[in-house]
Amino acid sequence: MLQVHNASARGRGSAKPEGAHMKMIIAAIKPFKLDEVRQALTSLGVSGLMVTEIKGFGAQAGHTEIYRGAEYEVNFVPKLKLELVVPADLAEQAVSVISETARTGKIGDGKIFVLDVEQAVRVRTGETNLEAL
Fold this sequence. Notes:
Helix content: 10-25%
Number of strands: 6
Strand content: 25-35%
Oligomer: single chain
Structural class: alpha+beta
Shape: elongated
Largest sheet: 4 strands, antiparallel
């Protein structure tokens, strides 16, 4: 069980979980932008990335297409979900790189979310937190 101690109650600054020095970045991008984003993140020093094919909708809320003469509505647009965990001091740069590289200027370019990561473990070696990245 993870125990988080409230340091501010004892007058020692703000309370942060042990692993708060890591950030998880979750980004939904257009599929054709993947290689460009991956290369840019690798150049920045990001050493790992998970990619999942997803479908979703946002402001564009789907669209109508014609397939073999029949019109049909596409309610969910194909996207890729990128998940990466980086040291906190690299998070802002990584978000900026993803945003700039994935941008087409058209509706549906995607979203990026940043969360605190409490703990990371490399299964093979047992390394934890920043060493596990």
